[in-house]
Protein backbone atom coordinates (compact mmCIF):
# COMPACT_ATOMS: atom_id res chain seq x y z
CA UNK A 1 0.00 0.00 0.00
CA UNK A 2 1.41 3.37 -1.01
CA UNK A 3 0.76 6.59 0.93
CA UNK A 4 -1.45 9.23 -0.67
CA UNK A 5 0.75 12.02 0.80
CA UNK A 6 4.13 12.32 2.54
CA UNK A 7 5.56 15.05 4.76
CA UNK A 8 9.04 15.46 6.26
CA UNK A 9 10.74 17.75 8.75
CA UNK A 10 14.33 16.82 9.58
CA UNK A 11 14.45 13.20 10.72
CA UNK A 12 10.68 12.98 11.27
CA UNK A 13 8.27 11.99 8.51
CA UNK A 14 4.55 11.33 8.18
CA UNK A 15 2.78 9.30 5.51
CA UNK A 16 -0.99 9.46 5.00
CA UNK A 17 -2.73 6.24 3.98
CA UNK A 18 -6.25 5.73 2.67
CA UNK A 19 -7.97 2.36 2.75
CA UNK A 20 -11.30 1.38 1.26
CA UNK A 21 -13.32 -1.16 3.20
CA UNK A 22 -16.78 -2.67 3.16
CA UNK A 23 -18.94 -1.95 6.21
CA UNK A 24 -22.46 -3.01 7.21
CA UNK A 25 -23.91 0.04 5.43
CA UNK A 26 -21.65 -0.17 2.39
CA UNK A 27 -18.17 0.87 1.34
CA UNK A 28 -16.22 3.51 3.26
CA UNK A 29 -12.75 5.04 3.36
CA UNK A 30 -10.56 5.09 6.43
CA UNK A 31 -7.37 7.06 6.94
CA UNK A 32 -4.29 6.57 9.06
CA UNK A 33 -1.00 8.36 9.52
CA UNK A 34 2.31 6.57 9.90
CA UNK A 35 4.90 8.63 11.80
CA UNK A 36 8.53 7.68 11.49
CA UNK A 37 11.63 8.96 13.27
CA UNK A 38 15.19 8.11 12.33
CA UNK A 39 18.41 8.24 14.31
CA UNK A 40 21.92 6.90 14.02
CA UNK A 41 23.04 4.04 16.27
CA UNK A 42 26.44 2.39 15.91
CA UNK A 43 26.90 4.15 12.56
CA UNK A 44 23.64 2.87 11.07
CA UNK A 45 20.27 4.58 10.74
CA UNK A 46 17.46 3.12 12.85
CA UNK A 47 13.78 3.84 12.12
CA UNK A 48 10.91 3.83 14.62
CA UNK A 49 7.30 3.95 13.42
CA UNK A 50 3.92 4.64 14.97
CA UNK A 51 0.58 4.44 13.14
CA UNK A 52 -2.27 6.69 14.26
CA UNK A 53 -5.84 6.31 13.02
CA UNK A 54 -7.81 9.39 12.06
CA UNK A 55 -10.02 9.22 15.18
CA UNK A 56 -6.98 9.52 17.49
CA UNK A 57 -5.17 12.28 15.61
CA UNK A 58 -6.46 15.26 17.61
CA UNK A 59 -5.61 13.58 20.93
CA UNK A 60 -2.16 12.65 19.62
CA UNK A 61 -1.47 16.27 18.67
CA UNK A 62 -2.75 17.42 22.08
CA UNK A 63 -0.53 15.13 24.15
CA UNK A 64 2.53 15.82 21.97
CA UNK A 65 1.98 19.54 22.44
CA UNK A 66 1.63 19.07 26.20
CA UNK A 67 4.80 16.98 26.30
CA UNK A 68 6.69 19.63 24.32
CA UNK A 69 5.50 22.32 26.75
CA UNK A 70 6.56 20.20 29.73
CA UNK A 71 10.15 19.92 28.54
CA UNK A 72 10.38 23.53 27.29
CA UNK A 73 10.34 24.96 30.83
- In whole angstroms, how far apart are the ends? 41 Å
Helix/strand-derived category reads: alpha+beta
- Give the strand tally: 4
Rg, Å, rounded = 16 Å
Please mark out the parts with pLDDT under 50 across 5 or more consecutive residues, or reply none.
none
Morphology call: flat
Query: Total domains, how many?
Result: 1
Output the strand order for the largest sheet.
1-2-3-4
The biggest sheet amounts to: 4 strands, antiparallel
Helix content: 10-25%
| pLDDT averaged over residues | 94
Number of helices: 1
| Beta-strand residue fraction | over 45%
Order of helices and strands: EEEEH
Can you characterise this structure?
- The protein is of the alpha+beta class and 73 residues long.
- It is flat.
- The chain is built from one helix and four strands.
- It has one helix at residues 57-72; strands spanning 5-9, 12-23, 26-41, 44-53.
- The protein is 22% helix and 59% strand.
- A four-stranded antiparallel sheet has the order 1-2-3-4, with no helix packed on it.
- The mean pLDDT is 94.
- The chain has one domain.
List keywords for this structure.
single chain; 73 residues; alpha+beta; 1 helix; 4 strands; 22% helix
Question: Quick summary of this structure?
Answer:
The chain is α+β, with helices and mostly antiparallel strands and 73 residues long.
Amino acid sequence: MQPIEKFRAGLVSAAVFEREAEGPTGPFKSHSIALQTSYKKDGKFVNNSLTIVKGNLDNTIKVLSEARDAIAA
